[in-house]
Write a structure and sequence with these properties.
Strand content: 15-25%
Helix content: 25-40%
Strand order of the largest sheet: 1-2-3-4
Number of domains: 1
Largest sheet: 4 strands, antiparallel
């Protein structure tokens, strides 16, 4: 796990590139089911969640885990692809 300063740097990196977030349709379907989103736009939902003050981003290497309340969103750090999201 990173220090809070490192987390802030990673969080800023994700927020700076938030417009690049994307997800394949199969992942969107899984995320809708996991989070009970109905027909909501998964990418927009994740952007909103990542923009929250209480979003904590951790991870080194290929993937980042974004923890917001009782939700964890996994994002590939290179492609900005949303891999999964689920409730704790």
């Amino acid at each position: 796990m990173r220090s809070s300063r490192g987390e802030n740097m990673v969080s800023r990196t994700i927020l700076n590139d938030i417009q690049r977030l994307c997800a394949l349709e199969p992942a969107q379907e899984r995320i809708r089911e996991n989070l009970d989103l109905g027909d909501a736009d998964v990418v927009e939902y994740c952007k909103d969640m990542l923009s929250r003050e209480d979003c904590r981003v951790v991870g080194e290497g290929e993937n980042r885990l974004c923890m917001i309340g009782n939700v964890i969103i996994s994002i590939n750090s290179a492609s900005h692809m949303i891999i999964s999201a689920h409730k704790l």
